[in-house]
Design a protein that fits this description.
Layout lengths: L1 E8 L2 E11 L13 E5 L3 E4 L5 E2 L4 E5 L4 E4 L2 E4 L3 E13 L10 E9 L2 E2 L5 E5 L7 E12 L3 E9 L8 E14 L5 E7 L13 E2 L4 E5 L3 E2 L5 E4 L3 E12 L5 E9 L2 E2 L5 E5 L8 E12 L2
Antiparallel strand pairs: 1-17, 1-20, 1-22, 2-16, 2-21, 3-6, 3-15, 4-15, 5-14, 7-8, 8-14, 9-13, 9-15, 10-11, 10-12, 10-14, 16-18, 19-20, 21-25, 22-23, 22-24
Length: 294
């Protein structure tokens, strides 16, 4: 039995982790299992401000209609059950730096049936000097939906500059969806319901997940922040942590550990510039496959 800590980071505001693995005794897959949708945006050019922006998609690369249906900004999930969502979006600065208004922060997240998901947050930062004019947000989430729930991708800026614009770039925005198996997969979804204070130095702090959103028999969540993996095998792990800090120039590192040992390749970071143009919060996120022994 392995104990996996999800994850270790600093300065938490909100965090979530989701994990799934195949059950040992396989049965007939649930309806729609394995169906896929891939949507992209070819046009772009939309101005991103501090107001909420809901992404639309003008190109359907693939849409398995048993599970998915796109209309403008809305992706209707036709079947109840678990889904995997993966997205990315590029944003470019559209003016030359003027004075001190040179910093831009863009955040992206997912909503389901009009409510924000704890999983799937991401952040991008533009410095606007030395031609550093582009950023990309990328996130991933495992969630459970009811039939006909609507999924949306949102982005917004947190910064305060009043000059120039930041635009969504066509040909560099995408949303990929996979209907997961509700019969042969086990799921665990944890989140942080209350804010947690992080460290002030390089010493890791374990995220003490205090809310069990879903916990199948293949997992044990007895200690905040620790998830025991009952069975050996391969696991798909998704984790993100939303953080805030007013100190200038702070880099926060998120990582996964398995039996107290860092999982190779699990480190991700988020950069907080601080109070300059209100760029003091963001999210670190990871999606990866790991292997554990029983």
């Amino acid at each position: 039995m392995k104990s996996s800590s999800f994850p270790r980071i600093s300065g938490i505001l909100a965090a979530s982790a989701a994990i799934l693995c195949p059950q040992v005794d396989a049965a007939l897959s649930s309806t729609g299992s394995g169906e896929i949708a891939i949507y992209t945006e070819a046009t772009g050019g939309d101005a991103i401000t501090t107001a909420d922006f809901t992404h639309d998609f003008d190109t359907t690369v693939r849409e398995d209609v048993g599970s998915f249906s796109l209309s403008g900004t809305d992706v209707t999930l036709n079947l109840a059950g678990h889904y995997l969502a993966i997205y990315n979006a590029r944003f470019d600065n559209q003016f030359s730096p003027v004075g001190t208004e040179e910093r831009t922060e863009v955040q992206s997240h997912l909503t389901l049936a009009g409510s924000q998901l704890a999983s799937g947050w991401s952040q991008g930062y533009i410095r606007r000097q030395e031609n550093q004019n582009e950023t990309i947000t990328a996130g991933m989430a495992i969630f459970e939906a009811s039939a006909a729930d609507v999924l949306q991708l949102h982005s917004f800026r947190t910064d305060t500059p009043t000059v120039g614009t930041v635009e969504r770039i066509g040909g560099a925005v995408g949303l990929q969806l996979l209907k997961l198996d509700d019969v042969n997969m086990s799921y665990a979804r944890l989140s942080l319901g209350s804010n947690q204070t992080g460290p002030t130095d390089a010493t890791d702090v374990k995220v003490a997940y205090d809310t069990t959103d879903e916990l199948d028999a293949g997992f044990v969540h007895a200690t905040p922040g620790d998830l025991e993996l009952v069975d050996g095998g391969k696991y798909l792990v998704v984790a993100n942590s939303y953080v805030a800090g007013n100190n200038n120039r702070t880099a926060l590192v998120q990582r996964l550990t398995l039996d107290g040992v860092e999982v190779e390749g699990s480190k991700t970071t988020v950069y907080l510039r601080g109070t300059n143009q209100s760029t003091q919060d963001g999210a670190a996120s990871i999606g990866m496959i790991l292997e554990a022994t029983a």
